[in-house]
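Please fill in the sequence for the structure shown.

STRUCTURE ENCODING:
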């Protein structure tokens, strides 16, 4: 009799377990699109993730997360982001690929520009997507635009110059407590101290020429609104920053320029949104 009692309970357990296992398992689809190299000109080196030594890059080569690209003098390369756009690196530039995934139709891309120049063309992204390029002093975040970044050294400090050619870019310091929406035809500069200059009109394509691999915009006889004439040259005049005799930098919107800022309306924006 005991056996007759146990057998039904045993089969009932099998049925219950089978029912649990038959429930559909939902797995969110996540894809990793290709990031590849094209139009390699001159000396372009790739330092693979975890490596220390570079090797010559190869046409159509696919990059992996944390791979680093370095271009030599008079060298350039184009980075193709599948389904997203492209990034062009100019000479003497160091750029790192961090990640690129698509999940539920949302694109998420991140990279770093350590030094040098780039231009990026990004397609309009779906709501909730992100495209970010970090530099030693700033973060440029977009949702579909055409812009240029220039990271350079001046008196042993890093500066990042942003110029927007189409649409807009949210440009912030690394702490994220100061940011501006830089519109088409405007530029802004960020320094190591966390200061970001208000957007201003780009000056007659001088910045565009610098981003194309030419010389940075000239100082124009010591103009305070232009970067030095060569990277690392100790010449007065930073884009949007005032220079004191000790060599330290201060934001043109800070205490060092209270008189100037008092006569102009503030253009600072908090967490601006780009449509």
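FILLED IN BY: designer on duty
SEQUENCE:
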């Amino acid at each position: 009799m005991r056996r007759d009692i146990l057998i039904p309970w045993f089969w009932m357990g099998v049925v219950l377990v089978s029912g649990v296992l038959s429930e559909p398992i939902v797995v969110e689809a996540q894809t990793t699109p290709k990031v590849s190299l094209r139009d390699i000109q001159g000396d372009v080196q790739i330092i693979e993730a975890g490596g220390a030594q570079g090797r010559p890059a190869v046409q159509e080569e696919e990059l992996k997360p944390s791979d680093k690209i370095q271009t030599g003098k008079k060298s350039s390369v184009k980075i193709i982001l599948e389904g997203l756009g492209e990034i062009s690196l100019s000479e003497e530039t160091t750029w790192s690929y961090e990640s690129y995934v698509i999940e539920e139709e949302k694109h998420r891309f991140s990279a770093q520009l350590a030094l040098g120049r780039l231009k990026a063309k990004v397609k309009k992204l779906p709501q909730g997507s992100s495209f970010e390029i970090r530099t030693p002093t700033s973060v440029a975040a977009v949702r579909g635009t055409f812009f240029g970044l220039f990271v350079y050294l001046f008196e042993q400090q890093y500066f990042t110059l942003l110029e927007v050619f189409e649409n807009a870019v949210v440009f912030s310091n690394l702490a994220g407590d100061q940011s501006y929406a830089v519109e088409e035809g405007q530029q802004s500069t960020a320094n190591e101290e966390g200061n970001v200059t208000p957007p201003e009109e780009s000056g007659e394509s001088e910045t565009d020429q610098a981003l194309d691999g030419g010389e940075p915009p000239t100082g124009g006889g010591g103009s305070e609104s232009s970067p030095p004439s060569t990277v690392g040259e100790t010449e007065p005049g930073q884009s949007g920053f005032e220079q004191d005799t000790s060599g330290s930098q201060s934001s043109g919107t800070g205490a060092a320029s209270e008189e100037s800022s008092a006569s102009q309306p503030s253009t600072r924006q908090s967490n601006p949104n780009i449509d």
